[in-house]
Amino acid sequence: MAAVAPEISRDATTPSLLPRPAAIRPVFTGQGSEYFRIWIMNTLLTLLTLGVYSAWAKVRRTRYVWQNTRLDGFVFDYHAKPIAILRGRILALLLFGVYTYSFDFSRTAGVLGLLMLCAVGPWLFMRSQQFKLGNSSWRGLRFGFEADTRQAFRVVLPILLLWFAGTVGAVWYPTDLEVFLWSNIPAIAAIPWMHHRLKGYQHGQACYGDRGFSFQPVLFQFYWVYTKGLVLLVAGVFVGGFFVFSAIEWGPGVAAGSESDRFAFLGGVLSGLLALLMIFLFSWPYLAARIQQSVWSTTRLGGVRFCTSIRARTLFRLTVRNVFLTVATLGLYWPFASMNLARYRIECMSVESDSPLGAIAAGTRSSAVGAAGEGAADFFGLDLGL
Amino acid sequence: MNEPFAAWRFDGRTAEPHPASLRVEGDALVIESSEASELRVPIARTRFSEPFENTPRIVYTDSAGAFEVPDGRGFSRAIEAAGFVPGPVVRLQRFWPAASAAVAILVAALAYAYFYGVPLAARWAAGATPAALQERMGQELLGVLDVNFLAPSALPAETRQLIEVRFASAALRSAPDYPVRLEFRTMRADEQQEEESSESDEPPGEEPDQTINAFSLPGGIIVLLDGLVAAADPDQVFAVLGHELGHVVYAHSMRQLFQSAGVAVLAGLAWGDFSGVAASIPMALGVLRYGRDLERESDGFAVRFLADDGLGVEPLCQFFELVVELEREKGIDDFPEFLSTHPDTSKRLAQICPEKWGQAPSALSPSFRGAP
């Protein structure tokens, strides 16, 4: 009996005759109503198991998004073992706990905690990338992350040191404004540099099959995007501040005297929250959209180019809607919101390739997916969500 | 009956898809493709991608590669008919009634954990923390406060000794098993300036600080500020120290620490998935409520402490009346309770001396939690 040919017709052996290949756009088939049921089970079981299930939840959630993302007719898959993620989470929790509470015990303990984070942080970051990519596959081939420990430290350690300078300064000289400024301003001024450095590392070391991804630096663009983001942040502060000001000035408080002071106070609290929301709404969509554009415009996979048509304005409208509905439904809209967001961000991407994608071969860099599914045969898996 | 499903085969050597077909026969998959002869693979030795509504299913085998089946739903039915059903969670996820029940259980579990689980766990954890560790934490904390906010007390040595001796002997009687240490401090003047304007409008000067407060730290340290000693008479100071001793006896500062950690975990579990900010609002309000519960518990201890001494609750009532008076002068008596670390002073009065203050002096808005 002859094999039944799938409906999608393709002929990969004939090279494309088009002068320039057409862009392939991914399609996202995830639905809020289906994801809601997955999400509510995840949340409930996570709560009932005091967080233990969160590792399984993470796998379910990632599988849902990956498997609903189709590129060139085929879906992605995620193979991480929940138990490895659980081990990784316990480790991360311990480290984070040490970092959070060590300064409550003593300065020495705090500095030791920071040193420990610096000593393992870069390695953990590298492993988390290896875990995430090594457990993702498409068309039977895995992604991967090629990195060595020395390089990880060279890339990540300067970021950590710069970042913790402010913490140490604040503990030793809590009331000294000069120390505060000198230990924090360099770190704040370097945020775009840090972000760019990490993105470059993530995209430059990733691989698929026998091909490595490459990333050309776009540091200037990052600074430009962050500067404009800062302008929008200030605009957000002004709009938010306007709410606070109007609540205090024209609210019921002043006219009626001390009797309704607490309404004015409540108004102040609410408008403060609104202000925070405004700041988030004004700057986040812009930053997210523009950074995504910059990063993908300069990322290559051999002859494969990436592009995203994501627009800050559309992302802004989507975010406003999502935030409003999520708050109004006390969180129940969240799964729908996250599917909307994922659909927009994924479907904005496009991929152009000189040669058929099918020609990509398995390499020494990453292996095929077997029945056991073990990728980065890891004792623990970290997914830092970066 | 066992219809074949069209599939794409990936051999794991390249990303090239090859047409194939799969069908379920008994407990095995029969694979046909153009380049190889018919192949039987036991289903038990394959792995499937998770079934979702609109996704293909992918079958991973060790010997024959991976197969992506576009008709995921139909293929899932075929595998399940062969007896290979997915786990209970995946099956529950398909049904709306299960999802609705999950919402209800989630709300109930959250409420239970918040009102009973976290306080109970914090009480247990505080009890399990070694005394030496608590003492050290208190010492470190006092060190940090000394560096940043506090200055040595300006009270005459004999005043301090009077307070200390009287309190120490009473503490020995009411709470013999708890080591307590009394520390005298005053708020540092330059720090007060930087506080919010609602706290002090007086221009900074050489005059002693007026902050009326006393607080307890882990390890049995009670800090008494000069401002309180200046504003209250010795009996009232003694009564306030009784209240602080309550915090020590019930290990409130440790419990507070664990409770805020517990609420953070709870909020993170429930809302952390989408927003840290959204998770921190219920958390902040939740921690404040715990604080008010602890204050009430400490007030109860103070009442017994004063009864043991034979003094009676009168001085404590007088002190709270003083606080009510001061709050009224400052115009902060209307501060909403649910945003406060302490219960409304009038409510505390009603609890401590019900015969005098049984009816709260001003009928304020009901507290956040409803009836206390």
Instruction: Point out poorly predicted stretches of chain B.
Output: 191-205, 274-278, 360-372
State Rg of chain B. 33 Å
Return the structural class of chain A: alpha+beta
Question: What proportion of the residues of chain A form beta strands (DSSP E)?
Answer: 5-15%
Protein structure class of chain B: alpha+beta
Ends apart, CA distance between termini of chain A: 49 Å
| Average pLDDT number of chain B | 80
Report the order of strands and helices of chain B: EEEEEEEHHHHEHEHEEHHHHHHH
Write down the secondary-structure element order of chain A. Answer: EHHEEHHEEHHHEEHHHEEHHE
Q: List segments of chain A where confidence is low: pLDDT < 50 over at least 5 consecutive residues.
A: 1-18, 252-262, 372-380
Portion in strands of chain B: 15-25%
The greatest interface between two protein chains, and residues involved on each side, is: A-B, 78 and 74 residues
Report the total helices of chain B.
13
Q: What form of chain B results from the Cα inertia axes?
A: elongated
Description:
The complex is a heterodimer of chains A (386) and B (372). Chain A is of the alpha+beta class. Chain A has helices spanning 32-48, 54-67, 82-105, 107-134, 149-172, 177-189, 191-205, 219-249, 252-256, 261-297, 312-328, 334-347, and strands at residues 27-28, 69-71, 74-78, 136-138, 141-145, 206-208, 211-215, 299-301, 304-308, 349-353. A ten-stranded antiparallel sheet of chain A has the order 1-2-3-4-5-6-7-8-9-10. The longest helix of chain A is centred in the last third of the chain and has 37 residues, at 261-297. The model of chain A is unreliable at 1-18, 252-262 and 372-380 (pLDDT under 50). Chain B has helices at 72-81, 88-93, 96-128, 131-148, 157-174, 189-194, 226-231, 234-249, 252-271, 276-309, 314-330, 345-352, 354-357, and strands spanning 5-10, 18-25, 28-33, 36-42, 47-48, 57-60, 66-69, 150-152, 181-187, 214-217, 221-225. In chain B, strands 4-3-2-1-7-6-5 form a seven-stranded antiparallel sheet, with helices on one face. Chain B has a four-stranded mixed sheet with strand order 8-9-11-10, with helices on both faces. Chain B is an alpha+beta fold and 372 residues long. Helices cover 53% and strands 15% of the residues of chain B. Chain B is elongated. Chain B contains 13 helices and eleven strands. In chain B, helix 5 packs across helix 8. In chain B, strand 6 and strand 7 (66-69) form a beta hairpin. The chains are: A alpha+beta (386), B alpha+beta (372). At the A-B interface, helix 1, helix 2, strand 3, helix 10 and helix 12 of A face strand 1, strand 2, helix 2, helix 3 and helix 4 of B.
